[in-house]
Amino acid sequence: MLRVDLIGIQMDPATGAAVVVLREHEAPNRLLPIIVGGAEASSIAMAAGGHHVERPMTHDLMATLVDSLDAHVDAAEVTELRDGSFLANLALSGPMGERRLDTRPSDAIALAVRLNAPLYVSEGVLDEAGTLPIVEFGDDEIEAEVDVFRDFLAELDPADFIPDFPPPTGPCIDNPVGLGDIDGEHPED
Description:
The protein has 5 helices and 7 strands. The chain has one domain (2-161): Bifunctional nuclease domain (Roll), CATH 3.10.690. 29% of the residues lie in helices and 29% in strands.
């Protein structure tokens, strides 16, 4: 397993999908993009940016459970790429010993960020799905970019990851989701 850092959450302009970007900690600093759901992206962004909500979200509850059971998340590990899907484990330790739990990478990352646990990716996954950055930076430039991203996360609004849908118009039976007329016209046209 190779150590990675969470360096970004982006929206794919072509699909609108949220993408978590991990970067290999050591050279060659390959990047690993992982598509995640909007709710998971929001949860990761909130935790990475140090934002808290009044009522705990699912990943906040999971972190509280881990702590209350005297357990510790040792690592979040992206272990495999199978049929186009990334697989992950949470490595836990506690009074009952060490455990590895099968999980989605997004949930593992969201929990690891909350509990300051390290992130790892198998070398095979990085070999298969990792990409080299187009422009190579020295360590100082990389750290400067990471600092810029951290500042971005601090100002991030989790609502940015929740799509806005237009309100329904016309009779519901003719326009069940409010996306305009059947002929392709949209309410804002």
